[in-house]
Specification:
By secondary structure, the protein is mostly helical. The chain is 69% helix and 0% strand. The longest helix is centred in the first third of the chain and has 42 residues.
């Protein structure tokens, strides 16, 4: 439930947060007592008449300057939001067209074959899963995905506070990955409408629901794998990959053992999460931070 509530909020705030993370401070903290040029001119001339009401020119300069500053700031923020929206739309276009690229045909076949094979034995696998207190597995999944998301959010916040560009990039790409994952996850859920194990006739029929809280694809596994993929690419050290993918695997296994999804759901969700996370990383990463970035250092990338 937590991830289903959090993701729509991220979608609504994503562009504003991206702009905030990449916008330079409007206040010069090194010189908080900044004096306007009009005030400096007043001090130099030390003319008492400049402050008198019968000199409208002197009193009108400061508001004009303030209005200009506010207008400039508002325009900059609008520009950042506009560029962020365009960047997200570009990513969505690339992601939806990716399966049709000749170089990806082999991966399409692997995913389709794996999905079809698991769908053929979904019910047989389900019958052999252990029973018992299934809430233990659900709680383990929620705690793990919450810890993963919370840890990455803390990394991003620390990067912004300390001006660590690598951490800032990691946090920004994590957020973009979540947004792009949601825009692929939601339509698939609505179109598939698959029943969960234990619902209906127990066969996992499709087109039975008309919302995004259905069985196919596995949402928790999809989002967890997408987040893990970005951080594993940003910091390609064995222990980082072990922690990131270990957390994602825990979420996948826990949701499966809790009888929340069929085996085929748990195959498609992580597969899509990995592909989305990898695409976002390589589309926007900075090659100066690590060698795993395949993006050209000369390529312009505006948010």
């Amino acid at each position: 439930m937590a991830i289903r509530l959090a993701v729509p909020v991220l979608v609504l705030l994503a562009n504003s947060l991206l702009g905030f993370a990449q916008t330079p401070p409007l206040l010069d903290l090194a010189n908080p007592l900044h004096v306007s040029p009009q005030a400096l001119a007043f001090e130099e001339t030390n003319s008492p008449s400049a402050a008198e009401p019968d000199h409208p020119a002197a009193s009108s300069d400061t508001p004009a300057a303030a209005d200009g500053t506010k207008g400039s700031s508002g325009t900059d923020k609008q520009g950042l939001v506009s560029r962020s929206v365009k960047r997200t739309l570009r990513d969505q276009k690339d992601l939806y067209l990716a399966p049709f690229q000749p170089s990806n045909i082999k991966w399409d076949l692997v995913v389709l074959a794996g999905t079809g094979g698991l769908m053929a034995v979904d019910r047989r696998i389900e019958r052999h899963l252990p029973g018992g207190n299934l809430s233990i597995y659900s709680n383990a999944s929620n705690i793990t995905i919450g810890g993963l998301a919370g840890g990455l959010a803390l990394m991003w916040g620390y990067g912004i506070k300390t001006h660590n560009e690598h951490l800032k990039e990691t946090g920004t790409l994590e957020l973009e990955t979540l947004v792009n994952t949601f825009f692929i996850y939601a339509p698939m859920q609505l179109i598939a409408g698959r029943q969960r194990p234990g619902e209906g006739n127990g066969y996992g029929d499709f087109s039975r629901h008309h919302n995004i809280n259905t069985s196919f694809p596995a949402g928790h596994a999809m989002f967890a794998t997408a987040m893990a993929t970005v951080v594993a690419h940003e910091y390609p050290k064995p222990w980082v990959r072990l922690l990131a993918y270990g957390a994602a695997t825990t979420v996948i296994a826990a949701r499966f053992l809790a009888h929340d999804h069929w085996a085929s759901d748990e195959f498609v969700g992580p597969a899509l999460g990995y592909l989305i996370g990898s695409h976002i990383f390589h589309a926007h990463c900075n090659p100066d931070f690590d060698e795993s970035c395949h993006r050209s250092p000369l390529k312009s990338d505006q948010p």
